[in-house]
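Hi support team,

I'm filing this because I wasn't sure whether my run with IPE finished correctly. The job status page said complete, but I'd like someone to confirm that the output block is well-formed before I use it downstream. Pasting the exact inputs I used:
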Amino acid sequence: MMILIKLGGSVITDKTRYRTFNSGIVSRLCREIKESGKEVMIVHGAGSFGHVLAKEHDINSGFKEETQIPAVARICYDVRELNSMVVSELISAGIPSVSVPTGSCFVMDNRDLIFENDEPVRRFRDLGIVPVLFGDVVTDRSLGFAICSGDQIMERLADLFDPEMVVFVSDIDGLYDKNPKTERDAVLYDEVDSRVLKEVSTKYDVDDVTGGVRAKMESMLRMCSGSRCCVLVNGNAEGRLLKLLRGERIVCTTAKGGIS
Ligand code: IPE
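And here is everything the job wrote out:
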């Protein structure tokens, strides 16, 4: 059985500084994955290799003006560089892995992600090579181009490969009832279902182009099915991912029961 993991842009990069890679953290997380001995499939976010320019040039609105074109090329280049660094850390940790550029499997239509060709992912997996996908700018049949987030890729991969668990590695301990960065009495949820999510403050969201913690929880709930749970874990806390993969109890938020 396989575990599907997303390494979020907030943990693998410094989201506030353009193109800053957190190599020490990524290398530790890769070692934790290796040590767990689990079969995994990996997706990562873009962090400051994607969001900074995407926001500046309004890339998520699709093609509007010519000045966006060099920005799209630049973002695609930047996220591929980031991806190479992540794959390099995985290989160094002893995990044979390969970059699968998002646009080689997916196309979008009005920001809906369509899994056009799952063959590269399937065949690499069958060979025992971990496919690594990432948040990217991809072509969109209606908008010209659009942002494909790592979270959207996670949903498609979960549908197709039926992982036993889905893990989102981020820079927060889990989901709080309020923003823990501004509210001192914010309480961490151990477990979230769709009823709990309705109570979470709607103002509480982080500032990025593909929509904050709440959107993440909604997509996590959509990825729960049967006994499969979806976990949000802090990758900055040493050893936490390893413990989670080993089935030990840790500080995190688990999404259960699907969305209603
Ligand atoms: C965003 O991917 C892709 C681009 C901005 C090009 P994600 O939305 O998955 O990235 P993070 O994890 O939030 O950084």
